[in-house]
Amino acid sequence: MADDRNKDELDRRIAKAKAATQHGVTDAEGRAESRGWAIGIEFVGAVLVGAFAGYLLDKWLGTTPWLMIVLLILGFAAGLRRAMKTSNQYDTDPTNDQQ
């Protein structure tokens, strides 16, 4: 009898804890967040690759800081273009769940 009461109390506390920790994120929201992170990481990666390549070329050719500035700007443009292209691809995807 006491064990049943303890078990019921434990089940109630577990259910309450689960309800408190759920964030209410749907699958569609989770996919959208993942896509957003992917676009952001691609953008930052393009900028960093451009800056690093410019830095290395500047060190090698002795043109500090001009190639780094130019390739940083080109990396920014490439990252922006890639982000816009990927974003448009997600927007026009017929399997995209908009709920």
Structure description:
This protein is an all-alpha fold. It has a domain at 30-92. The chain has helices spanning 2-21, 27-61, 66-92. The two termini are 47 Å apart. The mean pLDDT is 86. Keywords: Hydrogen ion transport, Ion transport, Membrane, Transmembrane, Transmembrane helix, Transport. The chain crosses the membrane at residues 37-57, 63-80.
Structural class, from secondary structure content? Answer: mainly alpha
Q: What is the share of helical residues?
A: over 70%
Average of pLDDT:
86
Question: Stretches where pLDDT falls below 50 for ≥5 residues?
Answer: none
Q: Main β-sheet, in a few words? A: none
Transmembrane segments: 37-57, 63-80
Pfam family, one: ATPase_gene1
GO cellular component, one term: proton-transporting ATP synthase complex
Family: Belongs to the bacterial AtpI family.
List keywords for this structure.
99 residues; mainly alpha; membrane; ion transport
Question: What order do the helices and strands come in, and which of them pair?
Answer:
Elements: H1 2-21, H2 27-61, H3 66-92
